[in-house]
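Feature request disguised as a bug report, sorry. It would help if multi-protein outputs had a clear separator. Right now it looks like this:
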Amino acid sequence: MALSSMTGFARQAGALPDGTGFVWELRSVNGRGLDVRLRLPPGLDRLEARLRDAAAARFKRGNISATLTLKREERVARLTPDPAALEQAIALLVAVAARIPGCPPPRAEAVLALPGVLRAETQAPAEEEEGAKQAALAAGFDAALAALAESRDAEGEKLAAILETLLGEISALRATAMTEAAAQPAAHRARLQAALAELLEGEHRVPEERLAAEVALLAQKSDVREELDRLGAHVDAARALLALPEAVGRRVEFLAQEFGREANTLGAKSASLALTRLSLDLKAAIERLREQAANIE
């Protein structure tokens, strides 16, 4: 079966052009549609649309949370003089030196060592550097999406085996129910004869044709062959859907609802304890099928 689950996990590490390391962590669980939640460090808001488009191009359903961990960038601060503070410091030192006889002129390192003369200036990344950074992060995200797809496919293989087991169980219960249902007319006849015999106490005999008509009416009302035939058709349809190389989760979920309707009708029409028990077993298997179908993409 070509099947993909909506459950998966992926981790992708990489490095930016300036050597800064990053790690993408992606987690996916089942959802009605596709919902991508991004947790990015400050300053990377412009990258969101690009990442969402990449996820939508690869997946159809699932709640995907993506977290980017970025190592703090350590940029060397460049020292630059404050023009106003520098002029003020020079003027002050020259004035002081002029008042002290024989004092040498102020040296440059002494001027620059004064508080406030030099200030640290962190250089902002250039536009070209920022573009290369975003491209590297987007490429890492694409690699993480590919790994997530592999994880979901691996889960899909396990899910396919579980679904096939459940479909086999439903098919076997249906076959047993077919055998049990075939005996319902005879059971109706015996039950009706016993009830009439007790009611009439042998004083009157019900005409055979009247008894046959009543039994036929009861058998018609409790005929479950149509429900069992549809149940068999649903099993075949489910197997055909699961073999398709595309996202079939919604259709399988809808089909699981149809399974449930047939099992409910079977239980309502049952004329024997054995058939009632079979309908309950079918409902239990169908519920497990429905739960697993909710994980299919």
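(second protein starts here, but nothing in the output says so)
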Amino acid sequence: MLSLPSVPRRVWTAVGALLLLAALTALVALPRPQNRDASARQGNAPTEIDDSDIPWPREGQAAVALEGSGQVLTHGVQRPVPIASLTKVMTAYVVLTGHPLRPGEEGPRIEVDRQAAYEAGVGGESTVVVTPGDRRTERELLQLLLLPSANNIARLLARWDAGSEEAFVRKMQRAAQDLGMRDTTYTDASGIASATTSTAADQLKLAREAMRNPVLRDIVATRETTVPGAGPVANTNTLLGTSGVVGLKTGSSTPAGGNLLWAAETDGTHLLLGAVLHQRANTTPAEGLTAALEASRTLIDGLRARLRSTGSER
């Protein structure tokens, strides 16, 4: 019988180590099975909106965007039109930029001046009753600004922030320019002036920044609250809590018609943003606002259905 030569143990140890290393290298090189859960999560990433057969409003103009997709869709001629109380979103944005609040923080107390109290009795405007000398917190005044849409509070905040409404309006215009809102002109802090104009596409740029501010986002998502000294107040945006809507702001007047700047959740993570402007213009503010709310609901429901059909919404 053939006998094998004797091999030292240390040689066999080295050979074994080499064989083990080769096996591990081959194992690492093998294609790994894909994690199905991870793949599913990737399918939830923002995608483009299917722009076929979108239920756009029959009149006016509109724009929509899905956060994270980089896509903006518009409908109607994007020409500047009066935006009424959508103006107050920029008012709140400028105030919070200069006087930022943390979530849950009330901010400084601001004295109600005689002008704000007097303006509460002016007819033809949306206002809230306030008492001269009362000291309301910044957050309370922002709630009165954005929920019942009080014009006298918009002007009070403007005077507090910049010394005069005129100086504050200049800050609003600079903020609009910084956000790339090239077709927007602000001439007042409340939106009562028909010379304050914008487009749906421009308003989306503001909506995106507004919803990134946690305090502003929390306020515009509030359906109703009680403000000390003012009592219970309700949000004019009656779509809140339906169709995934979590904000933003209504605006209506005879020249502006009905307007709605809105934000709706898709899958709890991504936001669908939209602006619907100039609905039933030159009728009554109530008729215009009803039309804007109805057109927006139809648009939101249609878009969310399309996102579900493409797997973007779970």
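Even a blank line would do. Unrelated, but nice: DSSP finds ten helices and eleven strands in the chain.
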